[in-house]
Amino acid sequence: MVFFAGVCVGQYIRGNLTQLSIQQVSIANCIFETYYEFLLIAVINALVQSFKRRYQDLNCTVLTVFQETESVEKWPALAQDYRILGETVDMFNEMFGWQIVLIMFHFGLEMVSTLYFNFHVLVEKGKADLVGRLGNFSLCIWILWNFLSIVLSIHDTHKESRKFIGLLYTMQDYFEEGSMEIGALNRLVSYSKNFAPKFNGAGFFSINRAIIFSLLANVCTYVVIMFQIDFNETS
Fold this sequence. Notes:
Number of strands: 0
Shape: elongated
Number of helices: 7
Structural class: mainly alpha
Oligomer: single chain
Order of helices and strands: HHHHHHH
Low-confidence stretches: none
Helix content: over 70%
C-alpha cells in the first residue's frame, strides 16, 4: 500500500509539472519495472532474514550442545549445518547477484534524478509547491530505505554468522589445553572458516555497510556535476 501510494503521488506531481497524462507519466517512469523491482527487493530481504534467523538458531544450538556433558559426537553436526548455510548463501549470490548489481545501480540513478529534480525543477524553475517537495522528498527516502534494508539485513546476517566462529573460540576456555575437546574444537574452527558466508554482487563487490557511504558519496558527486553542467549551459 505504501508503494502504490508513493507511486500515485509521484505520478501526480510529475504529471502536473510536465503537463503529461497519467498514461504518459507511467510509461516515462517505467512504473511496471519499478513494481517488479519492489517485489524483487521484498524477496531478497525475506531470504536474507531467513538466513539470519537460521544462523541465530544455530548459535543457540551451539550453546545448548556445549552445556551438555559427553556431547563431543554432536559437534560435527553443527559444523555441517554451518557448511550448508554457507553453501546456501553461495547459491543466493548466484541467483540474485546480477539483480543486486542492477538494483544498486538503479538506486544511484534514482537518487541523483530525484535530488536534481527536487532542487532544480521545483526550486529554480519557480514550481516549488509544497506537494511537490513532500512527494520528491518521500520518494528519496523510499529509495534510500529500500537500499538500506538490503545492505543492513545482509550485514546483520553476516554478523550472526561470525558469532558461530566466536562461540567455538570461546568454548576452548572451558577445556584443558591438549584435551580431546580442544582438538575437536580446533578442527571445527578450521573446517567452518571455509564456509563463512560472503554476500556479493555478482562477484564485483562485497556487500557490507561500507557500500552505504560509497553510494552516497557517488550520488553527491554526480549531483554536483549535473549542477555544474546545467550552470555552464545557462551561462
